[in-house]
Amino acid sequence: MVNRLGRTSLYVFLAVCGFMTVFPILNILAVSFSSSRAIISGEVSLWPVEFNAQAYVQLIRDGQLLAALKNTVIITAAGTALHMLATTPAAYTLSKKRLRGRAFFTFVVLFSMLFGTGLIPLFLLMKQLQLLDSYWAIWLPGLVSAYNLFVMKSFFEGMPAELEESATIDGATDLSIFFRLTLPLSKPILAAISLFYAVALWNTYSNALYFITDSRLLPVTVKLYQMLQMPIDSLLSGAEGASYIQPEGLKAAAIILTVAPILLVYPFLQKHFVKGVLLGSVKG
């Protein structure tokens, strides 16, 4: 009886926490599909009132948010590939005990994890390298995440050494072992770290705000911030059509368009995400 009561209380508590987490998203979704009259009168809660999709139509016609979404897709896709190309070989190399200076290089990576670069030196460096107003200013400062590198390094260290030894006896080179043996067996951790990088790049804000001034290159996070802070009429080129739509509805639609892609992709990678993190965090 006590166990059943405790289990029921736990379920109720988790249900309340889940509802509190989902409620803001459902509310914003409902506002984005509601009429201006319903939004002004405060009738919208969890379900659209006087359903219409004019806010989405106006945003699509205007094109600015879609252009920012395209920029974010480019930043995320290319950036994730660059980050993985840099992190994976580095983690694999540091996982080998025969590497000379392994302790020193590991300390250097750990030091960068504990002490970050100041904003002003980083800005001056980007300016000196002529990387301002380019996506490289977003990619290069965090090309290798120390945390992700250590998680992947731990995964590689947990792989059986006998596999590499047998491949070496068969005449395989280090590159052959890495590409033909290690990487095929590392799909869970590769998917997990790729997801880490992709989410971080999709949500990138500070670097884009500091290093990119060209409005044609802005990611969707900065564009969304501008839409939330400034009058809609000053941001949408189709201000004539926007005058018939409640600004809160346009802002809600912009938020949904921003978060929807990553929310749709995450469930398909969730199993790799959980498995990869567990395998990379606990050495077997």
Automatic annotation (TrEMBL):
Annotated ABC transmembrane type-1 domain residues: 69-269
A cellular component annotation (GO) from this entry: plasma membrane
Main localisation: membrane
Topology class, membrane: Multi-pass membrane protein
SUPFAM superfamilies: MetI-like
One family name in Pfam for this protein: BPD_transp_1
Top-level taxon: Bacteria
Keyword terms: Cell membrane, Membrane, Transmembrane, Transmembrane helix, Transport
Membership in a protein family: Belongs to the binding-protein-dependent transport system permease family.
PANTHER family with a match to the protein in the record: ABC TRANSPORTER PERMEASE PROTEIN MG189-RELATED-RELATED, POLYGALACTURONAN_RHAMNOGALACTURONAN TRANSPORT SYSTEM PERMEASE PROTEIN YTCP
Name recorded for this polypeptide: Carbohydrate ABC transporter permease
Organism: Cohnella fermenti
